[in-house]
Design goal:
With 443 residues, the chain is an alpha/beta fold. The chain folds into three domains: 6-164 and 320-343, Glutamyl-tRNA reductase, N-terminal domain (Beta Polymerase, domain 2), CATH 3.30.460; 171-310, NAD(P)-binding Rossmann-like Domain (Rossmann fold); 346-436. The protein is 52% helix and 12% strand. The protein has a six-stranded parallel sheet with strand order 7-6-5-8-9-10, covered by helices on one side. A four-stranded antiparallel sheet has the order 2-3-1-4, with helices on both faces. α7 packs antiparallel against α13 (321-344). It is elongated, with a radius of gyration of 28 Å. The two termini are 31 Å apart.
Length: 443
Amino acid sequence: MEQTAQYLAISFSHKNTQIATREKLAFASNESIKEFLQTLKNQNPDILEILLLSTCNRVEIYIYTHNAESITDKVTTALAALKDLSDSYLREIADVYIQEGAVHHVFCVASSLDSIVVGETQIAGQLKSAYKFCFDNGFCGKGLTRLVHFAFRCAAQVRNATQISQNAVSVASVAVKKASAILENDAIKDKIAVVIGAGEMGALLSKHLLVCGYRILLLNRNKTHAQTLAQTLNAQTPNSVEVRNFSELSTLINQYPLLLVATAAPSHIVLDSMIEPSDFKRFWFDLSVPRNIQPPSMEGITLFSVDDLEQVMHENLANRKRNTTKAYEIIGIYTLEFFKWLSSLGVEPVIKKLRDMAKDASLRELDRAIKKGFLPKEYKENVAKILHNAFNIFLHQPTINIKKLSDKEEADPIIEAIKGVFGIDDEAILINRYKCEYDTILN
């Protein structure tokens, strides 16, 4: 790791940014992310590596850079210009973390301590997806790979050492739980839900609805995607999901009390003009960012957005206070361990240790030979010189090779493997795949 490089995290989340602003900050596609990041890198040589995470609750940028403070201003300026927002406003609301603070924040995000619902599991997949995309497009290298790799090790330890993810919850599960409670209080017996969206969030919503005994009417612009999801869900709960045509949207929202929307559409798809009077109350949940439901002007409709689930976060924190305290302790330890690990990755300590091990082995064998009478004691100094030259010759080419690979992307796993083989560090953290095992993203 270059000595002058630092980690930087710039965060716009449910903690500091209103949903209206998060809607504007959100990136609708990977192509738009790619274009933005490429422009940033081209215009700012101090950005060595960059990763952008865009979800319904946060837009965050993680950077490995030579100049964290100046890069922060340049990133917020570029983001403000792209999203037609005030630069000064973005600087004011942004949470900015540098070096140890940035690492600690990323570990908190990966461990879901920074989520609306503490302990939810969806963020891990979202972070893996963001990393995979940025790595594949050349925005991430060794610096951010080390960070993300360690973040998932930390998150795994948090899950294993606490009950924070026991009965794991997500925004989708909380929405369904809230919807069920409302419908039960209002004595609505027909458990039918209209779900719009067949992506990851739509699938999660559907699964939780089925667990709660709902029948689902599923709509998606791409009907094939909806049919694929329905086939999967019906295989587990037969005849529970019915795919309807997207053109029926305006009819269905006026026929049933419960509507849940979670799509990647960049604007409203449920319009106020579609709403017709009804003799029953309606409860609509918009889990999309940008929001997909235009605020209704007609009475009798209660609309919930992701920010309306904020209270659940506080209840969740209260219920899991003991576990979150333990989790933060783990994250603090892992933050320290991360920088300790980084300092151990240099090749010079490894080379020195190998030479010391060779020297110690040679001198031990020399002393043993003299003790057993295999060699006269007066020859010790000369033989020691011969052995010293021998192991220096033996280690010369490996030393050159190790130094050559030190700046390459594959250096970390090779150096860790060398340390593991020779027992140089019994706490070696071996990276089995440089790409941070992102091929397990769908698990």
